[in-house]
User: Which sequence fits this backbone?
């Protein structure tokens, strides 16, 4: 991902379609649907709200930066009307309530916001929060893609504390996780709460200084998503989209096939699934298995693991759009691109806490250890320029 650290000045209505298309792909199967993101942005622009972005190098070292987002299952969110949720936010916006709870807890105002992840919902919702609260949003995020659990970020591997973490559900219940001995505890508390309140809520987390953020965040990711979407505006052919993605992300298009088997279960706020794809065209006779926990987390070709989170697995449908994991259905023809994650995230994943927080065991891949996709995918016959 070749993105500058300085953000654009603003995102306007003319940018909406391109930004959402880029976020849809970079969400790696999760991060919320573009339908929700579109409803958020349509509503904000209609009401005269504007989105202000700043780059990492524009944030003072002593500034207070906070992350956050919507918590919920992909399927739970899909079962609810985006327009209805966004309209309800005009009366009670859970993300704003969580931000205000964070400010009360810390005893000071938040200076900047940074998205937790990239995705059709969770990036626009932070842009909307910033607009409503009058707080600039940093052109960066904590993952450079989407991730299923709150502790699965570059932040945590670079020493930024996840807590305190205020949580607000749809009914207004508010809980603050002040401290946690386990990196998983805050997320588990959040899932418990939202699962009992319609499957959706919001949180604020990772309070950090500007100096901490500069070391830990994945830079330029919102503007990168916008530029990616612009390059794809007139491209719908899935092979052309896959090729462009591979070029932009220093990745490789590695498989085309149809979804033949899907084994799924909804588990405490997560969408968990194994998808078996049967190869078509030049991939006939081969099969790929995708392991999904809200996002596409691991890919195995003919039984050989070749890409593991936090590296990226992007699934392009036959219309050249990003595929949400919950929308993948038997018979769907999809194209797979794998790519390395940002070096900061890889560095975080190698730290002692990062190895625990981002462990493949968290998404059902017991016995698997993270290794870069450039190494793992050699068993698939892929060769990377080093």
Assistant:
């Amino acid at each position: 991902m070749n993105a500058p650290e300085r953000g654009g000045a603003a995102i306007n209505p003319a940018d909406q379609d391109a930004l959402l298309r880029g976020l849809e792909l970079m969400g790696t199967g999760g991060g919320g649907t573009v339908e929700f993101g579109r409803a958020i942005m349509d509503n904000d622009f209609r009401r005269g709200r504007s989105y202000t972005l700043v780059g990492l190098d524009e944030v003072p070292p002593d500034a207070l930066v906070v992350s956050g987002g919507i918590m919920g299952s992909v399927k739970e969110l899909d079962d609810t009307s985006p327009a209805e949720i966004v309209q309800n936010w005009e009366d009670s916006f859970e993300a704003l309530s969580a931000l205000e709870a964070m400010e009360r807890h810390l005893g000071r105002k938040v200076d900047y916001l940074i998205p937790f992840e990239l995705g059709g919902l969770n990036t626009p919702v932070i842009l909307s929060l910033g607009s409503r609260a009058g707080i600039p949003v940093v052109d960066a995020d904590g993952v450079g893609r989407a991730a299923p659990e709150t502790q699965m970020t570059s932040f945590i591997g670079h020493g930024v504390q996840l807590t305190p973490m205020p949580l607000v559900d749809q009914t207004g219940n508010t809980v603050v996780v002040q401290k946690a001995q386990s990196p998983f505890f805050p997320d588990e508390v959040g899932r418990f709460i939202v699962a009992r309140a319609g499957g959706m809520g919001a949180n604020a987390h990772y309070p950090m200084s500007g100096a901490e953020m500069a070391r830990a965040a994945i830079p330029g990711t919102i503007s990168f998503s916008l530029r990616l979407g612009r390059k794809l505006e007139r491209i719908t052919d899935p092979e052309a989209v896959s090729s462009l993605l591979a070029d932009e992300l220093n990745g490789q298009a590695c498989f085309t096939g149809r979804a033949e088997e899907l084994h799924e279960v909804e588990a405490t706020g997560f969408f968990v699934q194994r998808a078996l794809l049967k190869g078509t065209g030049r991939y006939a006779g081969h099969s790929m298995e995708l392991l999904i926990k809200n996002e596409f987390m691991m890919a195995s070709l003919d039984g050989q693991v070749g890409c593991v989170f936090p590296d990226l697995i992007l699934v392009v449908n036959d219309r050249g759009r990003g595929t949400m994991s919950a929308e993948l259905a038997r018979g769907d023809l999809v194209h797979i691109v794998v790519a390395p994650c940002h070096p900061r995230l890889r560095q975080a994943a190698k730290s002692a806490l990062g190895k625990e927080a981002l462990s493949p065991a968290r998404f059902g891949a017991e016995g698997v250890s993270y290794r870069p996709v450039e190494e793992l995918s050699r068993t698939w016959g892929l060769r990377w320029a080093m």
